[in-house]
Design brief:
Helices cover 28% and strands 27% of the residues. The chain has 181 residues and is α+β, with helices and mostly antiparallel strands. It has one domain: Aminopeptidase, CATH 3.40.630.30.
């Protein structure tokens, strides 16, 4: 399936372009953007991630959209849907997630894009439930989840198996939302 373009009031969620890799790699090498991840991404890891994103669109019919502001028409990050398949009490599941350049934070873009992704998940794909999760200390992302109408499932909180034991970002919180909410 091809990546559909979604338009919001201020954003275009679109397919990935080769020119997106450089600014995405810069984001993934920014310690502020990657504060709640165990490590920064190399250029090579970013390139592989973009290829996986594109592959997921064709395999699953959903993935992560490249996001651009309509007023500037340049890449600012991603928003989208991703399969959560690591071992946890709530997996397999579909996650809504985002990663935006730090200079784009605090303007409501993650919430705006997240709402579009959730509408697509429920209305076009027919999913019944979408989850989101983040490091317990990531207050900014938790607030986005709450603005999206997601509800924390304390019983689902977990230590992320892809984060090394003892790492401060390993404890994660789980949020859920359902179709029709």
């Amino acid at each position: 399936m091809a990546c559909p373009v979604l338009l919001t009031e201020r954003l275009r969620l679109r397919e990935w372009r080769d020119v997106d890799v450089d600014p995405f790699a810069a984001m993934n090498a920014d310690p502020l953007v990657m504060q709640y991840f165990p490590a920064l991404y190399s250029y090579e890891r970013t390139s592989r991630f973009v290829e996986l994103i594109r592959k997921r669109w064709s395999e699953l019919g959903y993935s992560l959209w490249a996001v651009e502001r309509l007023d500037r028409c340049h890449f600012i990050g991603y928003v989208g849907l991703w399969p959560a398949t690591f071992p946890a009490s709530f997996t397999p599941a579909v996650e809504v997630g985002w990663r935006l350049a730090a200079d784009q934070w605090g303007q409501g873009f993650a919430t705006e894009g997240g709402k579009a992704a959730l509408h697509y998940a429920f209305d076009s794909l027919g999913f019944e439930e979408i989850v989101s999760f983040t490091s317990a200390s990531n207050v900014r992302s938790r607030r986005v989840m709450e603005r999206l109408g997601m509800v924390r499932d304390v019983s689902g909180d977990f230590d992320h198996p892809d984060v090394p034991e003892g790492h401060p970002t390993r404890p994660h919180v789980l949020y859920r939302t359902h179709a029709g909410r």
